[in-house]
């Protein structure tokens, strides 16, 4: 009797099987961080002790030419800039005939930003007045979500294993989150802990969104040899 070959996973899956366990643990930890910080700073309108370790967010902390760089980075988190990035990413997915990847890019970004909007209303932390809800940072969540989505698709396309794929996802998340987070704090739009909350929101939402896309599309099913 010969053993049946292991069934192959459909290549259109957006959550590589090699990353499911590691990203599930990462998403759970990220969600916990979002909740803990939210509870600690609920209803606050001043920077906390952790925020002051980095910078005093009550005044702009950079001047030209770095302020111009911060404004340029911030633009990509604004509606117009964010839309351009999403359109470019979706176009790339469609050129590669990865329609489910295009769905992940859009859904991941929308759900991450939507989650920050919901959490903001629940936490009620403000900056520069009672009308400016700050926790978590939606700009940081968007940039991180888009980077994580693209990294997931790259991991699947390159066939990376658990260690390499997880490293790629984390590197992309750190690069995008750090760049946008720096811009937000530098422009006094957010406290540093707001940035951390936005970063963790994306890390919690995007893997769950990828799993859901696969589930709905049926890519989690295995082909028969």
TrEMBL record:
Residues that span the membrane, as ranges: 21-43, 75-96, 103-123, 135-153, 160-183, 195-213
Pfam families: PAP2 (PF01569)
Keyword annotations from UniProtKB, A to Z: Membrane, Transmembrane, Transmembrane helix
Domain Phosphatidic acid phosphatase type 2/haloperoxidase: 82-210
SMART domains (UniProt xref): acidPPc (SM00014)
InterPro entries hit by this protein: PAP2/HPO, PAP2/HPO_sf
Protein's name in the database: Phosphatase PAP2 family protein
Species annotation: Streptomyces typhae
